[in-house]
């Protein structure tokens, strides 16, 4: 149990843009343990794992594996030596079958040909051996999120991994699915596998780990036996201050609130698959309606239809009493919609453009920023400066390219821009995913402020803590339907929500109807 | 995470690793390499490579006429470059400027040979020819524009097919309706003198198209950086999903871009013909539209960059063309070596990146010592 | 020949023979675009590689007095251009579309310059004593009526083309390497994460693409014609790329699309003999490709709308 399998010595990683991701990291991983690495987003956990798995090369420092210093040239060598990695974003090809995905790169052969029969047999057997219930002849695109994760783990087992790195595996799972995963991990431990578990959910980490290493700002803050540290102690090591669990004290009531968003009978199907079924809810001024649910249960489609990225099929969407169903994105924004998108790099910014250019994209036609033909460049820059200051975006100049900022600061630019149109309805989709706690906190307060000033907010997040901390009212979605509605979050626990999120329980029609203001 | 730039404000020293100086170093080194390779190639084929090479680099400086020749060569390259730049900036790989140059040349010829009565006033007559070509160019460009905007059709292959089709149609029109007897090949009647562009520099062939070219550069610069349309072009080109999310309509934008680019191509073609040709005599695609893609690439999709690139390439092309009579191996096509090498190196993100990283790393290490 | 006679020559064995004859360079070009595209680096320099290979094939065959060495020379230049493409897109992280455009422009101009240096003229290599690759009469089959007329007596490279089409199908769909190629094209990070050497797979795919494009070029100047003339590829490479685009990763559809384009080209070769204006007849294949691409896009558009 005390035999060291992997040892990191003084690992330092400096990226080409000068960012120091890791500095003098020293960690020992013991054979057969579950060893967690915890730290804020951006603390350098993922970089460290990439170095172990030879996706990145360390700038300085040594890696010892099974007692010998190793220099893996690429992931293939790491894999051959028994290291496996389950990435945060799944590394699966949707149009391939499960079996094809599992054997890719180490295919069974018959002569020069690929032996698909034996590939299917081998993967099926492997799934059986480790109690994974997956049909290996299915295409990956047809699988649920947790099934995809199982395929990822099977991939490492197929390659005889002894040390398995799991990068934030529970981020996309329900509490119940997380439980099941943990059972699995304990079984791996019994079969002699070493598990490196990366997370920032401290409850889980404390529950599953033998030992825990904390990383802050790219440096280690010590390795501890899980049974010897409390969650409070870990929290302090990670961020140096305590987390806010609720924003209730900051919320103020809004008088004479009228209904802003009204969604009635919304249904949507894609390629014959029902994605949304009879969705009904409304939101008033001065409230935040949260939507909880495991990713991929229709939230994305719902948001895209409300914001206009997808066309509506059935049902009515009203903003301020006006049917916006047939409107373009532009018209919807004109009628008071703002939207913080889930993926800021993909939808929320143009990475190569300046901060100023990114700051005005949704309202550059405002009369103080442009005339009929020309832009009023000076005013645009002043406006950008004002917002940079108000939202304390850390930058030297509004002319800098936005991708020179950190994730948290980029997200602040997005929030500032969406805030600046003074929206009636703000749709916030994963507003703090992947950013540092300081920025996340700041953004939460901005959202609360908007609520207090009379905006209606629709919040979708895979982070249950976030939804519970911010929402006034809450919906739970499962397989494209609303399965639960909570008038207030007082006394509701995570595991209660988990039962709805997993489809174990389902409220009555009448209870769910409560989400609509008559 | 520590950020080495945090001390950057205090030290206001210009570093070679900063964006602009680094870009300039890359550019200069690319030019040196391109010219060096040209020299090596000359060593293989020429008996007097050193002389040839020096001649190639200096010939246009040996007289006002020669330098003027460089300037007039710039004109079509810049127009084609500006048109292509608009496509590239919007994220469209449209190469139809080549075919538009050809067919609009035919249109220009139709007017310039006096098929309809002209006024005799040089300003108005050349204006009619240029505008007519430009408008036809704009209308033709709307076809791939519409297919892209509405159906997201593969604009590059479509534009290339269009080039061949436009050439076929254009050549048919020339041969059938505009060609005159007594001239070798299929050439039109001479252009009416009032349609031709005036010479603006004594002792050279430099025509007023040069001024139009500068106006076009300024106009595109203003369009891109000072107008709302330009803003939507830039944002869409950098990230079309972001533009859509922000509420910008790609349909209207794509149509507008094709319209403007088509007009630039058509007008550029007319200006080239009326400025430097006596009659229409293109029996092949002139290659100017494709060179526009080159200009846009070398000029880093910036109108001023396109102007500089057009000057540089025209300088070498003019020089090579002037020397072609006296040397068996120098020809305007030789310049393609310089062009391709510049293109390859300038579009290489990693060219000199290692060097820059090393410098940055050195700085970082020094700072770590300081701490 | 009058116009009615011409129509009656369509879909005769002789016509099918012509379709095969004009279809081979298109098929090579399609395959060239296909193998590069499915591994994730779109090779739009097919046209440029064809031109250079056509010229070098002629040059080497004239220098060595051997058609076979000429073919080797053509393939060699194809590989060199493919390597340039690979180096700049993979090592230097340049946009493959830009590199493709640059190489096409270069090939179009530089081939003319070489032509000038080697022959003193910018038109054709008629002055060079170049060789052509042999035609092959298949014993037994050549005596079968109709079938023999259609499939016997083609150029050597025609049979190579057919054999390669079958081999590429097997490679892509039945071997580990094919699975890896597709993985690299669909998601390189995933491929990398399971130890697939993405760079190596792509390098092999691009070299293969270069060889295929080179064969298309060699076919044109050492079979179809017996010399090189400037711009002799006449957008055939682009037609191949269009066929690849229509196929969207499905090799059989790519092949079928190419055959349709080849038939259009065959029709042109017949119609050109009539008194219809040659300039307009010549644009038929390009119009067909254009229509094909538009139909594909409209179908995709309607699918997305549903």
TrEMBL record, chain C:
It is a multi-pass membrane protein. It is found in: Cell membrane. The keyword Membrane applies. Keywords: Cell membrane, Membrane, Sugar transport, Transmembrane, Transmembrane helix, Transport. GO terms for molecular function: transmembrane transporter activity. It holds the Pfam family BPD_transp_2. The chain crosses the membrane at residues 6-29, 41-62, 68-90, 97-118, 155-173, 203-225, 245-268, 280-298. The keyword Cell membrane applies. One of its GO terms (cellular component) is plasma membrane. Its main location: membrane. InterPro entries: ABC_BtuC-like, ABC_transp_permease. This is ABC transporter permease.
């Amino acid at each position: 149990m005390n035999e060291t399998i992997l040892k990191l010595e003084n690992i330092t990683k400096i990226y080409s843009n000068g960012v120091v991701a890791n500095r003098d990291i020293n960690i020992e991983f013991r054979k057969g343990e579950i060893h967690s690495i915890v730290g804020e987003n951006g603390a350098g956990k993922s970089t460290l794992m990439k170095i172990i798995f030879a996706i990145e090369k360390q700038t300085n420092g040594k890696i010892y594996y099974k007692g010998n210093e190793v220099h893996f040239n690429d992931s293939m060598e790491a894999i051959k030596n028994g290291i496996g990695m389950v990435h945060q974003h799944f590394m699966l090809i949707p149009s391939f079958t499960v079996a094809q995905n599992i054997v890719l790169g180490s295919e069974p052969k018959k002569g020069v040909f690929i032996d698909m029969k034996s590939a299917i047999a081998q993967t099926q057997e492997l799934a059986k051996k480790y109690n994974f219930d997956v049909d290996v002849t299915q295409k990956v695109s047809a699988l649920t999120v947790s099934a995809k994760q199982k395929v990822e783990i099977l991939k490492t087992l197929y390659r005889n991994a002894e040390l398995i790195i799991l990068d934030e595996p529970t981020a996309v799972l329900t509490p119940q699915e997380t439980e099941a995963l943990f059972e699995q991990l304990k079984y791996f431990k019994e079969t002699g596998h070493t598990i490196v578990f990366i997370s920032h959910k401290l409850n889980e980490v404390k529950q599953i780990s033998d030992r825990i290493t904390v990383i802050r700002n790219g440096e280690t803050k010590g390795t501890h036996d899980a049974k010897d540290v409390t969650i409070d102690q870990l929290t302090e090591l990670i961020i140096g201050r305590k987390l806010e669990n609720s924003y209730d004290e900051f919320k103020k009531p809004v008088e004479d609130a009228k209904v802003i968003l009204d969604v009635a009978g919304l249904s949507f199907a894609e390629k014959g698959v029902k994605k949304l079924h009879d969705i009904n809810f409304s939101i008033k001024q001065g409230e935040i309606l949260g939507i909880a649910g495991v990713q991929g249960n229709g939230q994305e489609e719902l948001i895209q239809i409300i914001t206009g990225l997808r066309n509506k099929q059935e049902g009515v969407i009203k903003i301020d009493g006006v049917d916006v169903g047939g409107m373009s994105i532009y018209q919807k924004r004109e009628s008071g919609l703002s939207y913080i998108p889930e993926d800021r790099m993909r939808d929320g910014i143009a990475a190569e453009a300046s901060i100023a250019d990114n700051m005005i994209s949704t309202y550059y036609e405002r009369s103080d920023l442009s005339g009929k033909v020309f832009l009023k460049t000076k005013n645009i820059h002043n406006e950008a400066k004002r917002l940079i200051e108000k939202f304390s975006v850390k930058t030297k100049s509004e002319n800098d390219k936005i991708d020179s900022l950190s994730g948290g600061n980029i997200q602040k630019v997005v929030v500032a821009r969406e805030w600046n149109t003074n929206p009636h309805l703000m749709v916030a989709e994963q507003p703090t995913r992947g950013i540092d706690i300081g920025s996340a906190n700041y953004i939460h307060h901005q959202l609360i402020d908007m609520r207090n000033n009379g905006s209606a907010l629709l919040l979708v997040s895979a982070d249950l803590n976030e939804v519970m901390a911010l929402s006034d009212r809450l919906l739970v979605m499962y397989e494209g339907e609303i399965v639960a509605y909570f008038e207030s979050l007082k006394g509701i626990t995570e595991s209660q929500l988990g039962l709805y999120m997993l489809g174990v329980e389902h409220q009555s029609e009448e209870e769910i109807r409560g989400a609509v203001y008559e | 995470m520590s950020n080495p730039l945090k001390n950057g404000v205090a030290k206001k020293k210009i570093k070679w690793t900063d964006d602009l100086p680094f870009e300039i170093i890359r550019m200069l080194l690319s030019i040196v390499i391109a010219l060096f390779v040209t020299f090596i190639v000359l060593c293989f084929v020429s008996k007097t490579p050193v002389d040839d090479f020096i001649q190639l680099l200096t010939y246009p400086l040996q007289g006002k006429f020669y330098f003027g020749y460089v300037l007039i060569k710039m004109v079509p390259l810049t127009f084609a470059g500006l048109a292509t730049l608009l496509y590239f900036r919007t994220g469209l790989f449209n190469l139809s400027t080549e075919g538009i140059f050809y067919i609009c040349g035919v249109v220009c010829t139709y007017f310039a040979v006096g098929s309809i009565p002209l006024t005799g006033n040089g300003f108005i007559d050349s204006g009619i020819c240029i505008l007519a070509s430009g408008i036809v160019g704009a209308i033709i460009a709307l076809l791939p524009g519409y297919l892209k905007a509405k159906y997201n059709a593969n604009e590059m292959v479509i534009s290339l097919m269009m080039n061949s089709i436009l050439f076929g149609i254009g050549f048919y029109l020339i041969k059938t309706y505009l060609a005159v007897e007594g001239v070798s090949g299929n050439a039109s009647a001479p252009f009416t003198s009032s349609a031709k562009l005036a010479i603006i520099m004594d002792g050279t062939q430099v025509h007023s198209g040069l001024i139009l070219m500068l106006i076009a550069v300024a106009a595109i610069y203003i369009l891109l950086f000072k107008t709302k349309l330009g803003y939507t072009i830039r944002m869409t080109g950098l990230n079309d999903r972001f533009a859509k999310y922000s509420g910008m309509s790609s349909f209207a934008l794509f149509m507008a871009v094709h319209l403007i680019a088509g007009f630039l191509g058509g007008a550029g073609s007319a200006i080239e013909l009326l400025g430097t040709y006596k009659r229409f005599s293109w029996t092949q695609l002139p290659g100017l539209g494709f060179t526009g893609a080159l200009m846009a690439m070398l000029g880093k999709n910036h109108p001023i960059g396109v102007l500089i690139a057009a000057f540089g390439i025209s300088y070498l092309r003019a020089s090579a063309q002037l020397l072609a009579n006296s040397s068996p191996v120098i020809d305007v096509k030789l310049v393609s070596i310089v062009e391709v090498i510049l293109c390859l190196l300038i579009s290489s993100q990693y060219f000199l990146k290692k060097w820059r990283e090393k410098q940055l790393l050195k700085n970082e290490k020094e700072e770590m010592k300081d701490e | 020949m009058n116009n009615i006679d011409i129509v009656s020559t369509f879909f005769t064995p002789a016509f099918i023979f012509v379709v095969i004859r004009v279809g081979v360079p298109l098929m090579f070009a399609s395959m060239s675009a296909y193998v590069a595209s499915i591994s994730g680096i779109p090779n739009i320099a097919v046209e440029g590689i064809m031109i250079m290979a056509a010229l070098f094939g002629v040059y080497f065959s004239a220098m060595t007095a051997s058609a076979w060495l000429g073919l080797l020379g053509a393939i060699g230049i194809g590989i060199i251009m493919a390597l340039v493409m690979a180096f700049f897109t993979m090592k230097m992280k340049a946009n493959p579309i830009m590199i493709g455009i640059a190489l096409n422009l270069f090939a179009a101009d530089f081939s003319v310059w070489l032509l000038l240096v080697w022959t003193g003229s910018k038109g054709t290599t008629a002055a060079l004593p170049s060789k052509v690759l042999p035609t092959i009469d298949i014993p037994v089959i050549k005596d079968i009526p109709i079938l023999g007329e259609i499939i016997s007596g083609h150029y050597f490279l025609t049979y190579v083309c057919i054999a390669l089409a079958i081999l590429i199908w097997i490679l892509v769909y039945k071997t580990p390497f094919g699975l890896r190629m597709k993985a690299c094209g669909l998601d390189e990070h995933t491929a990398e994460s399971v130890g697939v050497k993405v760079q190596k797979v792509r390098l092999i795919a691009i070299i293969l693409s270069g060889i295929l494009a080179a064969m298309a070029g060699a076919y044109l100047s050492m079979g179809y014609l017996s010399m090189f003339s400037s711009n002799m590829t006449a957008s055939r490479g682009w037609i191949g790329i269009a066929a690849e685009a229509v196929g969207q990763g499905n090799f059989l559809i790519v092949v079928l699309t190419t055959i349709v384009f080849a038939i259009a080209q065959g029709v042109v070769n017949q119609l050109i003999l009539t008194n219809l204006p040659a300039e307009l007849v010549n644009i038929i294949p390009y119009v067909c490709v254009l229509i094909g691409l538009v139909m594909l896009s409209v179908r995709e558009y309607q699918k997305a709308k549903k």
